[in-house]
Amino acid sequence: MNNTEITDRLTGIFREVFDDPKLELHDAMTASDIAGWDSVAMINIIVGVEERFQIRLRTREVDGLKTVGDLIALIAEKTA
């Protein structure tokens, strides 16, 4: 799975979590860039990622994420 495919799926997850059908993701995007991105939203994102990509994310991996690009890279690594 390439980064474009991952970003497309991830965008769907973010749009559902934040109830924003126009939300566009960018690699440098952080929690401060999206209104309502709190700990509950993060849990919903992680659950969505695990379900849609059929992977498991460890707490230390999630704790190390700083940007959407980091999440995309982690998903790419886990789905390779």
Automatic annotation (TrEMBL):
Gene3D superfamilies: ACP-like. PROSITE patterns: CARRIER. Signal peptide: none annotated. InterPro entries: ACP-like_sf (IPR036736), PP-bd_ACP (IPR009081). Pfam families: PP-binding (PF00550). Residues 1-79 form the Carrier domain. SUPFAM superfamilies: ACP-like. This is Acyl carrier protein. It comes from Gluconobacter japonicus. The lineage of its organism: Bacteria, Pseudomonadati, Pseudomonadota, Alphaproteobacteria, Acetobacterales.
